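User: Can you help me understand a structure? I only have the sequence.
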Amino acid sequence: MTRTDPRFSAVAKARYRRGNAGLVTILTGLLLASCHAGPNPANDPENAGYSLLYRLLSQQENVDKALWLHKVDPPAAAVIKEIAKTSGDARKQLEAFARADPGLQLKIQPLPKIEQETRAAIKSTETRVLLTSWGTTFRLRLLLTQNDSMEYASHLAEVLARDENNPERKRYLESLSEKFDDLNDKMVHLLSAPEPTK
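Assistant: Let's start by predicting it. Here is the structure, written out as tokens:
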């Protein structure tokens, strides 16, 4: 069968139609998939901020376990326990917000790989140093890490509150920022005051 043969033209047209039909099917499937997928929660700045806060709170609610390793003076121990309780309560409240709003994602990973690895390395070093410290050195290192954490938590909650459109969540984040700011002040006071004598 040659190109001039009428049958060639009919076969070519049929193949062309089948090829186009397949292409249309593929394109339609891709369009439908993209519509159903919706926005990627990892690209949402609000979800990124809430996930960072949630992860921090989940870590901080266990900070009082450091007191199982070594004892510190009662004023320092009281503030460490207050940090753990405040963080645990806040974690539960964020989970309640997420249950009420399925669009709010708390467990995405918004950080680039290099930042994740850097934070993990810092945390590993801090843990190792705390485990091998004693007495005044242990107390100082524990308070320093908590001072940094409370400062970060306060500012993170403040920035989230600034951009939050939900009035209930906005009020809560503002209040949480103030609580962490107060705890940060307590850390600064403990660090600047002489350690109580036993």
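Now, to help you interpret it: The chain has a mean pLDDT of 80. The CA atoms of residues 48 and 111 lie 8 Å apart. Let me know which part you'd like to focus on.
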